[in-house]
Write a structure and sequence with these properties.
Keywords: ATP-binding, Kinase, Magnesium, Metal-binding, Nucleotide-binding, Serine/threonine-protein kinase, Transferase. GO terms for molecular function: ATP binding; metal ion binding; protein serine/threonine kinase activity. InterPro entries: Kinase-like_dom_sf, NEK_Ser/Thr_kinase_NIMA, Prot_kinase_dom, Ser/Thr_kinase_AS. By secondary structure, this protein is α+β, with helices and mostly antiparallel strands. The chain contains eleven helices and ten strands. It has two domains: 89 residues, Phosphorylase Kinase, domain 1, CATH 3.30.200; 227 residues, Transferase(Phosphotransferase), domain 1. The N terminus and C terminus are likely disordered.
């Protein structure tokens, strides 16, 4: 099976122009974020007055070729995407031996900062607020998957927030463009707390790995910490909690059966048993419809029958798995994800 590597098959990288003068077009106001290999500034375009995020990639500090490609990949991916819930790429250029990305500016931080504020102040988001944010992220991911792009690092810190409560998926350095006939990849990248079990075990994975991460994100919006989090946690302890599906149940008196079912059906060890984005959106619509029908108590979704959606998804997943098995019949070295996870659990 062929993998499309963007550094080899995409000529867009040649279009990042050398333009030391272009940097003078931006009035840098303040540093809003930084990391080992990048800084992000709030800036104003002197020509049109637009407030932007100016992301400086510190290419001189990056010696590792893979890390360099991750930095460049974000530009390549963002150029392919145009969606209201994905941060917009406005420009990119070389200046003074660094790469600068000009991005849409998110004026209300990100979901990780919101969650931290809620945790410190002992507050919770309402179910409708959570579903509003989560639906927007689902719409963005649905669009990405339709373009054969996996995000691979979905987490609250990578969901930016606007003052009007619009949220935008960001940080595409770990994203991967795959060909339409590629079923799985193996590369290990991402943030451990949000990574699907098949990725921890370096097994083949596909779009369903993003679904696992979405389940973790939804759980954190409710509980204000990731499902498998513990303080001072060793990676082996984290993996055991994941394979045991050891996460604290959500209080049924505060949040509906429907939202808990979404999480439970995203956090499935077997990738083929997880919901896809369309099924998640369908479940959300049912929950929101129930809320809108003035059923005010927090258990108002307990009488919604999700079995039809779940059964339909299981049948679809099984059909896809049978097709994939037939397509990959000549590849006798392929691992079966669920069997491998069970073997690791029992060892």
């Amino acid at each position: 099976m062929m993998m499309i590597m963007m550094n080899n098959n995409d000529n867009d990288i040649d279009e990042i122009r050398f333009d030391d003068e272009n940097l003078k077009n931006y009035d840098i106001k303040k540093l809003v974020g930084n990391g080992e290999f990048c800084d992000v500034y709030k800036a104003i375009n002197r020509i049109n007055g637009q407030v932007v995020a100016l992301k400086r990639l510190k290419m001189r500090r990056i010696q590792n070729g893979q890390t360099r490609m991750e930095c460049l990949r974000e530009i390549l991916v963002l150029r392919r995407l145009n969606h209201s819930n994905i941060i917009k790429h406005l420009d990119s250029f070389y200046a003074h031996n660094e790469i600068y990305m000009v991005l849409e500016y998110a004026d209300a931080g990100d979901l990780s900062k919101m969650i931290r504020y809620l945790r410190v102040n002992n507050k919770l988001l309402s179910e409708m607020a959570i579903l509003n944010y989560f639906t927007q992220i689902c719409e963005a991911l649905d669009y990405m998957h339709s373009k054969f792009i996996m995000h691979r690092d979905i987490k609250p810190a990578n969901v930016l927030v606007m003052q009007n409560h619009t949220v935008k998926l960001a940080d595409f350095g770990f994203s991967r463009l795959i060909s339409s006939n590629t079923e799985n990849v193996i590369t290990v990248v991402g943030t451990p707390y949000y990574m699907a079990p098949e990725r921890h075990f370096q097994l083949k994975y596909s779009f369903s790995a993003d679904i696992w991460s979405m389940g973790c994100l939804l759980y954190e919006l409710i509980m204000l910490y990731p499902p498998f989090y513990e303080t001072n946690q060793h990676i082996n302890m984290l993996i055991k909690k994941i394979t045991d599906l050891d996460y604290k149940p959500i209080d049924s008196t505060l949040y509906s059966n429907g939202i808990r079912q979404i999480i439970n059906n995203c956090l499935r060890l077997s990738p083929i048993e997880r919901l896809n984005i369309q099924q998640i959106l369908e479940m959300i619509r049912l929950i929101q419809s129930s809320h809108n029908n003035e059923q005010q108590n927090n258990n108002n979704n307990n009488d919604i029958d999700f079995n039809l959606i779940l059964t339909r998804q299981r049948s679809k997943s099984l059909g896809n798995q049978i097709k994939n098995d037939e397509d990959n019949n000549n590849n006798n070295n392929d691992d079966d994800e669920m069997d491998s996870i069970k073997q690791i659990q029992s060892s």
